[in-house]
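Re: that chain you flagged

S.,

Sorry for the slow reply, it's been a week of failed gels. I finally had a moment to sit down with the sequence you sent. For the record, here it is as I used it:
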Amino acid sequence: MIKIVVTFGIIAGLICGGMFFLQKPEDGLMDFSNGALYGYVTMIIALSTIFFAVKQYRDKYNGGVIKFGKAFVIGLFITLIAGIVYVIAWEIFFTNYVPDYGEQYLTYLEQEMGKDGLSTTEIDTQLAPQREMMLAYQENILMRLGFTFLEIFPVGLVISLISALVFGIFF
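Prediction finished late last night. Pasting the C-alpha cells below so you have them in one place:
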C-alpha cells in the first residue's frame, strides 16, 4: 500500500504544483479572474489518481475486493502526500516568482471593485480586513502553509470519499 500511496500522491502533487510554474506572471499582476477555476480543475484531474490507486490496490494486492474504510484511507494518504508536495511547490513559486502575491491580489480586488462603481472610501473600507489577512499571509509562513494545504485538502477528501464509495460499496 505504501508504494501505491507514495507514487500516486507524488504524481498528484506534482501535477497540481507544476501548474504554478506554467502560469508564471509575466508583467506584474497575475490573472486572478480565472486562476481559481484553473487551479481547482487541475486539482480534480490530479487527485483523480486516487481512483486509479484504489483500483490498483484492490486488484493487485487485495484479490479484487476492498472495503470502504481501506479505500478511504488510501485516498486520504494520497491527499496528504499530494498536499505536502503542493504546499512545497507553492512556497517555492511564492518565494521566487510572486513574493508580492498579497499586493497583487489586493490590486486586483481594488480594480474589480472600481469597475463595480465603488468609491475609493468604500473600497478601502471593504478591503481593510483583506489587507490585514494578506499582511499576515505574507509574513507568517505557518499561516501561508496552512492556507495552501487547505486549498487542496477538501478536493482530495471528496475524491477519496467518492472513490471509497465506488470501490468499497458498489464494486
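What I noticed first: Residues 68-97 form the longest helix (30 residues).

Talk soon,
D.
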